[in-house]
Amino acid sequence: MPEHLIFHYQKEFALESGASLPGFQLAYTTYGRLNKERSNVLWICHALTGSSDFTDWWGGLFGKGKLYDPADWFIVCANTLGGCYGSTGPLSVDPRTLQPFYHSFPQLTNRDIVKAFDLLRQELGLGQIHTLLGGSLGGQQALEWALQEPNIFQNLIQVASNARHSAWGIAFNESQRMAIRQDPSWSGNSRESGLEGLKTARAIAMLSYRHYTCYEAAQQEPGHSTTDNFRASSYQVYQGDKLAQRFNAYTYWLLSKAMDSHNIGRGRGGVEKALKRLRARSLFVGVETDLLFPVEEQLALHQQVPGSSFALIHSSYGHDGFLVEEAQLTHAIQSFYQAETLKERHYENTEV
Fold it and tell me: Which residues form the active site (predicted)?
């Protein structure tokens, strides 16, 4: 069974912004065991509202007889710094004030987040990671981490993500933060601050996570007489209420800004030059109906990373297809591994 653990870092942690945290903790989950060679590590980076419990939101990929069988793999996933599933975040107590951080929690970038992940990696004594896998925000973090530590990762699988967050994506996120700002409670300091705004923000987000065809298939009225209280309307309300029961507005705000700041070219001479640092064998996966991270973004990465692979997921679910279409994702990853094995054998035969 998966094991849920806590990593404590008790030194000052400097952030890209120039601010710092007086230490932090990361909640993380492991599944399976290290082999003798310590060569079977899979590290997962989760999406914006995800947790370290990857079997909960990507369960079709993990388990006995599945793509990543714990009998063969040692799987690790950490709840992101700034999160609300056990890692240090805005609802955590600031040891300097003995009060929750709330609005005083410093802004994070993906570079800060993966630097925290890397401290956990070092604590676990993992010198090499066989595969680094992430989708959406987690895909941004995976790519950034593979560039920060190019000699650690053998394979990178980035799903429905990009090299630099688009103006379109930033506009979506800002629209959601505008909804949170309109909540009168947002200016206060309590666990419930901004929750009503968060509900609206989530409803806006759903329009970027799903696709027109998905809404038409699942939320369109069956007849022709409805004039109010539409299925699509109640669905939006339901999604907002559902997230508000398990999340908080501070973390949503914080991590959406981390997503906006994603740009692997920052301080590296641009995206193209930054990608030359990448050493991991790479697979970039897109979803054909993704409005938030359109396929053009994954194709651009594939074209700029020599020897990389690309796979397209067919789905009516839009961006959420990367979570829903587990069978297609499994096939894409299996094909990637098989192709890389063939390349290795060809190289070995050539060397001989």
Answer: 136 (nucleophile), 290, 319
